[in-house]
Write a structure and sequence with these properties.
The chain is an alpha/beta fold. The chain has one domain: Rossmann fold (3-Layer(aba) Sandwich), CATH 3.40.50.300. It is about 25% helix and about 25% strand. Strands 2-3-1-4-5-6 form a six-stranded mixed β-sheet. The longest helix is centred in the last third of the chain and has 11 residues, at about 135-145.
Length: about 180
């Protein structure tokens, strides 16, 4: 894994990335998997927003995503427009076993992406056998959000691809790749 939990304050490019989606789709689990390498089975809803720096080593130096992991419960939905202030990118996450969570991403994107920020959508829980999203659903999400990835926080499937896609967009380096941490 090419992430570290300890972030230095050196001059690295920093990008504010807001993660949105319904409650229970795995936003926090996806973020925690990157931060700690652990997979949590228990569901604990995010209250408001949690912010975590996530460092990636690349062939163009280190970059930091300041991850804004937002609450998916409707009672917190009025806060999400404020979270978009100063954002560099948006990541939508849905649950591939729940067609409704994918349909609700339209609402989340309308709330978050008025500035036409670089965005990506992830269909989490792709390791489950009960997929409800068709290829047409995924194609529609890709057209609306700019890119779609099936991911799994549980199995690590495609877990870096959405970040790599956004890092390339934000940095302007189409040849950017993630690299292992350098040993000092």
């Amino acid at each position: 894994m090419n992430t570290k939990t300890e972030i230095t304050m050196e001059d690295h490019p920093r990008y504010k990335l807001v993660i949105v989606g319904d409650g229970g789709v795995g936003k926090t689990t996806f973020v925690q998997r990157h931060l700690t390498g652990e997979f949590r089975k228990n569901y604990v809803p995010t209250l408001g927003v949690d912010v975590h720096p996530l460092l990636f080593n690349t062939n163009h130096g280190q970059i930091i995503f300041d991850i804004w992991d937002t609450a998916g419960q409707e009672r917190f939905s009025g806060l999400c427009e404020g979270y978009a202030v100063g954002a560099d990118a948006v990541m939508g996450i849905c649950d591939v076993t729940s067609k409704m969570s994918a349909e609700n991403l339209d609402w989340w994107q309308n709330k978050m992406n008025e500035q036409r920020l670089p965005s990506v959508v992830c269909g989490n829980k792709s390791d489950c056998n009960t997929h409800k999203l068709s290829q047409l659903d995924k194609r529609r999400l890709k057209e609306k959000w700019g890119m779609y990835f099936d991911v799994s926080a549980r199995s690590y499937y495609n877990y870096e691809k959405p970040f790599l896609h956004l890092a390339r967009k934000l940095s302007g380096h189409n040849d950017l790749v993630f690299t292992p941490p350098s040993s000092m």
